[in-house]
Amino acid sequence: MNLKDKRVMVTGGSGFLGRQIVEQLQRVGADVYIPFSSVYNLKTKEGIISALYNLRPEIIIHAAATAGGIGLNQARPAELFFDNAIMGIQLIDEAYQYGVKKFVTVGTVCEYPKFTPAPFREIDLWSGYPEETNAAYGLAKKMLLVQGQAYRRQYDFNIIHLLPVNLYGPGDNFNKWSGHVIPALIMKISEAKKAGKDVVNIWGDGSASREFLYVEDAAKAVVLATQHYDFDAPINIGSGIEISINHLASLLALKLDYSGELVFDDSMPNGQPRRQLDTSRAEKHFGFKATTDFGVGLDRTITWYKECFK
């Protein structure tokens, strides 16, 4: 699909990933429209219909989500389930009825079962229940996969489902409570250094692993999939590189020049034991391969944080 001059609506287009998707779409000549939440409440049918008829999209990339780290998932599982399910389910149905030509659902690695063998392959998606602390969020997103496949089967609706791994980069949510692991650790360690504290407490025992994808790379993958992927099977979006939380924290302490002690609290949850994706299908179907070195990406993220939170 040639996106030049196509009307593309990006939900969440002013958010962390959405801003990068908008930029990548503009680079290929698409006409991009963002249904800002101050104007359109996408958790309501009326808000969705209003956005569709005012913005008149040919393509929708659904990147909007209520999401966060383990703390937010534990505190607000009902909100995470409801917001993500109701927004996605109604948006898909109304987009089909409106006549949208292609719908791209940005799902989540949290859809995978808790004990998925690494590297995660798309065929393993239904082999068990998601990790408990983020199951509500993961299952809400997973139902959009089921809905999309059902709409493709019954209505021949061109809808695809992407499974991005943990994202990071400039513009991330730097909040110790609701942020994901990289921005939360950067903030914790930076604040400890500034306050002269010689200990930083970190949730979990440090053994859990994560895979991280630089947000600009993720946006490129979303646009490539929009252009070239038209199948009902979900598809992984990641870097293929796995790192333990222990190693990550030590690396960030080194980059932030923090010499204090990192203390892991094993009374707090680890989250999913491992996360690493098999990204071979994305490379095969639309030529995506992450290009941002992890160390370089961390340096850019830290620089952005220091400039914005002086």
Give the SSE layout.
Blueprint: E1 7-11, H1 16-27, E2 31-33, H2 45-55, E3 59-62, H3 70-75, H4 77-98, E4 102-106, H5 135-155, E5 159-164, E6 166-168, H6 181-195, E7 199-203, E8 209-214, H7 215-228, E9 235-237, E10 242-244, H8 245-255, E11 261-265, H9 280-286, H10 294-308
Parallel strand pairs: 1-2, 1-3, 3-4, 4-5, 5-9, 6-8, 7-11
Antiparallel strand pairs: 8-10
Helix pairs in contact: 1-7, 2-4, 4-5, 6-8
Question: Could you walk me through the main structural features you see in this protein, from its secondary elements to its overall organization?
Answer:
It is a single chain. The chain is α/β, with parallel strands linked by helices. It has one domain (7-172, 210-241, 273-292): 3-Layer(aba) Sandwich (Rossmann fold), CATH 3.40.50. It contains 10 helices and 11 strands. The strands form 3 sheets. A 6-stranded parallel β-sheet has the order 2-1-3-4-5-9, sandwiched between helices. A 3-stranded mixed β-sheet has the order 6-8-10. Helix 2 packs across helix 4 and helix 6 crosses helix 8 (245-255). It is globular. The mean pLDDT is 95.
The CATH architecture designation is 3-Layer(aba) Sandwich
**Structure class:** alpha/beta
CATH class descriptor: Alpha Beta
Q: SSE string, helix = H, strand = E? A: EHEHEHHEHEEHEEHEEHEHH
The first-to-last residue Cα distance is 44 Å
Residues in helix, %: 40-55%
Please count the beta strands (DSSP E, at least 2 residues each).
Answer: 11
Strand order of the largest sheet: 2-1-3-4-5-9
- The overall average pLDDT, rounded, is 95
